[in-house]
Design a protein that fits this description.
This protein has 552 residues and is α/β, with parallel strands linked by helices. Helices cover 64% and strands 6% of the residues. The strands form 2 sheets. The protein has a 5-stranded mixed β-sheet with strand order 4-3-5-7-6. It is globular, with a radius of gyration of 25 Å. The N terminus is likely disordered. One of its GO terms (molecular function) is pentosyltransferase activity. It is found in: Cell membrane. Keywords: Cell membrane, Glycosyltransferase, Membrane, Transferase, Transmembrane, Transmembrane helix. It is a multi-pass membrane protein.
Length: 552
């Protein structure tokens, strides 16, 4: 085995320095971002308001297939719709909208690197970027239409501003205030809760922020945050007061609603353990190292941020994976401070674990592709066929060459990685980006067929046209559809289903959705099935049925 030189060569400094890190971030953000349909779940659900804005239905309040979507204020949707409009000449609307996710993640990584430099010194800048980039649970959400990525970026901006308070009070206070105000426009009162208290907490808990200039900057930042946050509700009140009332009622629910039960805390810990890998071991090490320095801003600031996010998670009683995204900035800053002091044995163990675990996942990706193309291993091939019946892998030879090239580059980059305190985070980040690129090249078509509703909607549209033509398209009732299906019907076929009111509907057609092996709601005998579509298997099995009122 060739030993790394004591002094990296110029080529190594370029490849593993700022240029290489920039290319790595670009590869991470762009590969797999625009190459698939809106996927069921958050990706399709949050494209709905973007589509409504592009059609001119509503710019002030998010709508999904004509219905209010009250979960998030419109900051992310504004940016996504702007990107979608600007790229309409060469990208589909849903692909252009996802560019907003890439921008917000890139901004978050940049601001976290600057925050780590202010808190821990210049040596922590690259590890902070690598650790945020390599967060295991972030990779899938960074490539979907996800409003919480805007909150991710705004929390990073807030922390970056507060990290500058001791040295640049005015600039730091204004940055923190703007980040907090935009966090409200990203996630409502939850975003304000996770960001605004950090300003007075930084001043109260850390002696570094108690100077007159820093105190004045904090007050100015709070004024800027509250002013920025108040603009959207004020305009919404003037234009659509009923929508503002609806949104406020929904926000009030997470404040006064049921909290996370103690019995669910182990599930939260289990979810956080894999989602936040490898941040949490390094963050715990940093806390242990700083146990005799409790008043240091580098520890107090991210610790306070993590506490506010955890309090929000407990309050909303929602353990979906994307809800953990706001926890990444705090843990990334803590972990970046622990990298330099990590003992050689622990650093080597983390390094080898990164190499071996990601190599195993890479082998599994190749096996999954082999099951699609060659039917081996047979058990995995049966699973692939069951989840995507009739799937034929496109461009098998081209994908084989591209996947082989990615694997070779991955091995070369890891083999020549210079020894440094950031070697373990770099190994992990490089491996994760290459693994994601390999999965996109080899498996994206299979995932797209299984997670997109395009084929379902195209089949449904043919059935609807065959029943009553344009009249049927104007009135389709439903007993309840996933938001992703509502968006897909609206986007791919211009179909919108009406909810049933008081167990009755004037519509002649009824669309029913059944998940797994469940039973649909009891219907009157006058309804007869005219179309059925089954897809998925196991926990993801679902059935769609189109029924017609007999005699109509």
């Amino acid at each position: 085995m060739i030993r790394d030189p004591a002094t990296p060569t110029l080529f190594q400094r370029r490849v593993y320095g700022t240029v290489g890190l920039t290319l790595l971030v670009g590869l991470y953000l762009l590969v797999g971002l625009t190459a698939h349909d809106p996927w069921r779940g958050d990706d399709a659900r949050h494209f709905g308001p973007v589509l409504a804005m592009l059609r001119g239905e509503s710019w002030l309040f998010p709508l999904l297939a004509g219905e209010p979507l009250v979960e998030h204020p419109p900051l992310y949707y504004w940016v996504a719709s702007a990107f979608s409009a600007l790229t309409a000449a060469f990208l589909p609307a849903h692909a252009g909208a996802r560019l907003a996710s890439a921008v917000f993640v890139a901004l978050a990584i940049w601001w976290l690197a600057r925050a780590a430099e202010s808190l821990h010194g210049r040596a922590a800048r690259t590890p902070a970027a690598l650790l945020a980039l390599g967060t295991l649970g972030l990779v899938l959400h960074a490539h979907e239409t996800q409003p919480l990525l805007a909150l991710f970026a705004m929390l990073a901006l807030t922390l970056s501003g507060l990290a500058e308070l001791p040295t640049r009070p005015l600039a730091g206070g204004l940055k923190a205030g703007m980040g907090s105000g935009l966090a409200f426009l990203s996630a409502g009162f939850g975003g304000l809760w996770m960001s605004a208290p950090l300003l007075p907490l930084a001043m109260l808990l850390s002696a570094d922020c108690r100077s007159p200039r820093a105190s004045g900057a904090v007050l100015l930042g709070l004024c800027l945050a509250l002013t920025t946050a108040a603009l959207w509700p004020l305009v919404l009140h003037l234009q659509h007061p009923e929508l503002l009332s609806l949104w406020l009622r929904n926000e009030w629910q997470w404040i006064v609603g049921p909290m996370l039960r103690p019995a669910e805390l182990p599930r939260l810990l289990e979810l956080g353990a894999w989602f936040m890998w490898p941040l949490w071991p390094l963050a715990l090490w940093a806390l242990w190292r700083a146990r005799r320095q409790p008043g240091v801003l580098a520890i107090l600031l991210p610790l306070a941020s993590a506490g506010l996010v955890l309090a929000w998670l407990v309050a909303i009683d929602d353990l979906s994976q994307a809800r953990l995204i706001p926890l990444v900035p705090a843990l990334a800053l803590l972990a970046a401070g622990g990298v330099a002091s990590l003992r050689r044995g622990a650093a080597s163990a983390l390094d080898w674990f990164s190499l071996m675990s990601l190599a195993v996942f890479g082998i599994l990706v190749w096996l999954a592709w082999s099951a699609q193309v060659a039917g081996w291993p047979s058990g995995l091939a049966r699973h692939v066929a069951r989840n995507a019946p009739g799937f034929v892998p496109p461009d098998a030879n081209l994908r084989l060459l591209a996947g082989g090239a990615i694997s070779v580059v991955w091995i070369l980059l890891v083999a020549r990685l210079p020894r440094s305190p950031a070697r373990a985070p770099a190994n992990w980040a490089i491996g994760l980006v290459m693994l994601w690129s390999l999965a996109v090249v080899l498996l994206m078509p299979w995932f797209d067929q299984g997670r997109s509703y395009r084929t379902v909607v195209e089949s449904l549209d043919i059935a609807v046209r065959g029943e009553r033509g344009a009249q049927a398209r104007e009135c389709i009732a439903t007993t309840g559809l996933p938001d992703a299906m509502k968006l897909s019907m609206d986007y791919f076929a211009g179909l919108r289903a009406r909810p049933i009111d008081a167990d009755a509907t004037p519509c002649a057609l009824l669309l029913v959705h059944v998940e797994r092996r469940g039973r649909s709601a009891a219907l009157a005998p006058e309804w007869e099935t005219v179309w059925e579509y089954r897809r998925g298997a196991g926990k993801r099995a679902e059935t769609f049925r189109l029924l017609r009122r007999a005699g109509r």
